[in-house]
Design brief:
Layout: H1 13-25, E1 40-44, E2 47-50, E3 55-58, H2 61-64, H3 73-85, H4 97-109, E4 116-121, H5 124-139, E5 143-147, E6 179-182, H6 200-218, E7 224-229, H7 245-255, E8 259-263, E9 287-290, E10 301-306, H8 325-362, E11 366-372, E12 375-380, H9 391-403, E13 406-407, E14 409-411, E15 415-418, H10 426-444
Parallel strand pairs: 3-13, 5-6, 5-7, 7-8, 8-9
Antiparallel strand pairs: 1-2, 2-3, 4-10, 9-10, 11-12, 12-15, 14-15
Bound molecules: pyridoxal-5'-phosphate (PLP).
Pyridoxal-5'-phosphate binds at residues 123-125, 128, 151-153, 230, 234-235, 263, 265-266, 291.
Amino acid sequence: MVVRPNVKELPGKKAKEIIEKNFEALAVTTQDPETLPIVIDHGDGILVYDVDGNVFYDFGSGVGVLNVGHAHPRVVEAVKRQAEKFTHFALNDFFYENAVILANKLAELAPGDFPKKVVYQNSGAEANEAMMKLVKYGTGRKRFIAFYHAFHGRTQAVLSLTASKWVQQDRFFPTMPGVEHIPYPNPYRNPWHIDGYAEPDELINRVIEFIEEYVFRHVPPEEVGAIVFEPIQGEGGYVVPPKGFFRELKKLADSYGILLADDEVQMGVGRTGKFWAIEHFDVAPDTIQFGKAIGGGIPLAGVVHRADIAFDKPGRHASTFGGNPVAIAAGLEVVEIVKELLPHVQEVGDYLHARLKELEEKYEVIGDARGLGLAQAVEIVKSKDTKEKNPKLRDAIVKEAVKRGLILLGCGDNSIRFIPPLTIKKEEIDVAMEIFEESLRAALG
Ligand SMILES: Cc1ncc(COP(=O)(O)O)c(C=O)c1O
């Protein structure tokens, strides 16, 4: 028997009060109390208990952070143990052993038979900032290529890579110059209207051709330091590119001495059923940016990168909190827990995918169900024929689901992601699918 979600009133009295005070005290972020009025009291695995006693299934994992679930006992224990010893010692000036151990583990897990090093940071955006500095420093090249619909963070330089929504750019221009965007090989929705599921090679060729014929017409390739990509686009809609894409991209990059910078902030750390998502694609990138899930909820991020682009002089780059010992202690546990969970993620991920595919068959408004492992999404459309996006219906489904105790998050313009903690059981997926279908019907009216 699994615990089921249970919602009496949402938001309840206490939640309402806290949300009101939140908006008086805090700057606007992306909080949306109309859709997600959830004020947590505590969490346990996939469960979230709010301040009024409502119980939810967390299919958002704190936006891709809680891969090992809420309050995993091994992570909690590691954090306590470390906090009793020391909580900070500034890794930029001093030394502690667990930072070295985690760096070696992450480097060993990264594909590629070449020496690697690690830079620790605190957030995904910072990891991408560090990657850009490494690439510039290590290659002497100053330009970058990134993809439309990409999300790499919101800090000023990284914003030049992000091309997810205009609201992220509005009034923040100028960002860093020298970034060119190209279409991501989205099999369902691409500028060439190719069915990338039926004709993956055609889609791959068009993107490669776009770089050669359009970008390199005005951008000298020998000035491009790296092509920055998400192995599956996250905020852009959980878009899975054709299997052969990154191999072709690597061939092109190698022929011009361009590096591949792999942003695994959302897709890494077991989310897709492999430790790094790029392992599905048989390619060794030159940098891997990590963040979100690695610290088990404690801020930790960074870059695993080829050693020959490393910062080699003091002061080139450092961060007071980067590699905080409490976060590292959590990270060491997370790595081991996730490694143990990988076969489970593949199994339940396939199961979740098959359940969503059934719903795609059944409902005209589900245009595409896609994903790898426990990184799954559905795209909500007006009809399968026209593929016209239906963000209004998407938002209504999310709202209905939350009312029934299933926390879902949107992504892209009109998609819903399903990213529960990797510990989720099949029976819990069944409950979630039951609620999701009920919510879909309710939203359809
Ligand atoms: C792929 C990717 N990169 C970078 C970031 C930015 O991470 P952070 O919010 O920790 O700065 C995100 C956040 O959603 C992300 O999904």
